[in-house]
Write a structure and sequence with these properties.
By secondary structure, the chain is α+β, with helices and mostly antiparallel strands. The protein is built from five helices and three strands.
Length: about 130
């Protein structure tokens, strides 16, 4: 399974014109979650594409081999962004989340409150009349 992914990445790199000789790869000490294993081993991958000056650090897993794969995948995505000048899915998702978290404008907030008031009035009318 992992070999298939490596083959796929190699084909993608070849299609983009990226050669292994153009890449500077270093393994550095990781940090964060993962406990003693992460703190002792150099499983974080630093990858630099020399012609485009794109730098990537990848520490998604504790496995160095998987991190190498993920770093190359990230490099392919960034190079494609540069070549095709289009927004990747990753950037689109990030922007969508940013828009969702953004504070509403005063006018939009007033609209929401007005609609809530209308709904609450409807609900008040649904209640049975009080017993006298």
């Amino acid at each position: 399974m992992i070999l298939d992914k490596w083959e796929e990445i190699k084909k993608r790199l070849e299609r983009l014109g990226i050669q292994e000789s153009d890449l500077l790869e270093k393994f550095i000490l990781g940090s964060g979650k993962g406990g003693q294993k992460v703190n002792k081993t150099s499983s974080c991958v630093y990858l630099k594409h020399i012609p485009s000056q794109i730098e990537i650090k990848c520490q998604k897993t504790r496995s160095r081999d998987l991190n190498r794969l993920y770093a190359r995948r990230e490099l392919c995505e960034r190079v494609e962004e540069q070549i095709f000048q289009e927004k990747s899915e990753r950037i689109q998702k990030r922007e969508k989340i940013r828009r969702q978290k953004r504070k509403r404008s005063k006018r939009a907030q007033e609209k929401v409150l007005a609609s809530k008031k209308i709904l609450s009035k409807k609900k008040q009318l649904r209640k049975p009349p009080p017993d006298v």
